[in-house]
Amino acid sequence: MSFDTRSAAFAYLRTYYSAAALDREDTFLLDATIDGIEHARRVAVAAGQSLRCLELGCGPVAAWALCPGAVAGELWLAERSQGGRQVLHEWLTGDREAFDWSVYAAHVAKRMVELGEARESHPAVTLCGADDAGVSSPSRAHAEPGSGAPSSAAVDTFADEGSAASVSPGISEGSHAAGSCGASSGSRSRPLTAADVLASTRASVVGLLDCDLRRTPVLTRAEGGAARAGSGSSPPSSFHAVVMHSVADAISGTPEEFAALVSSAARLVAPRGSLLISVNTEVDEWHAEAVAFPQVRLSCDQVLAAIEGAGLQAVFSRQRSRLPDGKDTETAHTMVVLADKPPRAE
């Protein structure tokens, strides 16, 4: 799908995203992204760091950026097409013609408040619940994102990246910044709201980048892409969390090329950082505006093998059956995997 023009990018949003209500696919992807970001945030905070996140290949869609945007100290958005970046820039700057992501922000706020309350009441509780279509956890997985505080070995993570984060269980009155995943019912600060999530995301975005997983470097600054004054002339070399929804699978021609693109994305993840990736499995094409685009057919095992081949360790894997559209097989799924990069060898 080409977003070379603003009109093409905005037409895509109007066709596939709703400003009125979420569908089950939206909810599935938002919840998985929130849980992955919470996992990465814990590791960063244990290291005394403010979360630095990249959304890679985001198109004109701001929905998934709301998940890290509510808690990240620094968020970079990367999109190859000029039209996609233009639509994102309009939303970031509050253009009245921009797409309205409020219903997505409301879901993010509600979910983060729930996570904050669960963390206060039961510090070791698993924070990410099973989707109604089920959760598949690979044998390679070493932890669930809510399985407890990071080990003391994580304290030296990202030691050269920023200053300690100030984390509170809610939003103090008069502030729009989101310091954590929600508020306790007993907290004097008010719970996170959709307006907080929207404002915090806009405030946390450092810049809009050009990106290409087949290129070295993958990330470059796009002309006119800076969203925050003093953000510097170039993006950082690594991130605590990299989010990539339906990117590598959409542009790959073979399973081997898919694996190479996953490895390219993994190189942007800092040691002890996380990659969250979603993939359409067991399909030969995907559809946009009634046009079919060929896609490499991938099995769940091939996706997990690509993750492992990139030097990452799976934390969780979730699958949701795709709604039948006359083209997809009965086994077609949307698959989300969160994977960690091991610490740098001493």
Helix content: 25-40%
Number of strands: 11
Question: What is the CATH H-level superfamily?
Answer: Vaccinia Virus protein VP39
Largest β-sheet summary: 9 strands, mixed
- Provide the CATH top-level class: Alpha Beta
Annotated CATH topology: Rossmann fold
Q: State Rg.
A: 19 Å
How many domains make up the 3D coordinates? 1
Whole-number mean pLDDT: 78
DSSP helical segment count: 9
The N- to C-terminal Cα distance equals 43 Å
Low-confidence segments: 122-188
**Which range does the strand content fall in?**
15-25%
CATH architecture: 3-Layer(aba) Sandwich
Class based on secondary structure composition and strand pairing: alpha/beta
Helix and strand run? HHEHEHHEHEEEHHEEEHEE
What is the topology, as strand order, of the major beta sheet? 3-10-11-7-6-1-2-4-5
Q: In one word, what is the shape?
A: globular
Describe this structure in words.
- This protein has a single domain, classed as Vaccinia Virus protein VP39 (Rossmann fold, 3-Layer(aba) Sandwich).
- The chain is 31% helix and 21% strand.
- It has 9 helices and 11 strands.
- The protein has helices at 6-16, 24-46, 66-69, 82-92, 102-121, 194-204, 248-251, 255-266, 300-309; strands spanning 52-56, 74-78, 135-136, 205-211, 219-226, 239-245, 269-281, 285-288, 291-294, 313-321, 333-340.
- A 9-stranded mixed β-sheet has the order 3-10-11-7-6-1-2-4-5, sandwiched between helices.
- Strand 1, helix 3 (66-69) and strand 2 form a beta-alpha-beta unit.
- Helix 5 crosses helix 6 (194-204) and helix 8 crosses helix 9 (300-309).
- It is globular, with a radius of gyration of 19 Å.
- The N and C termini lie far apart (43 Å).
- Residues 122-188 have low confidence and may be disordered.
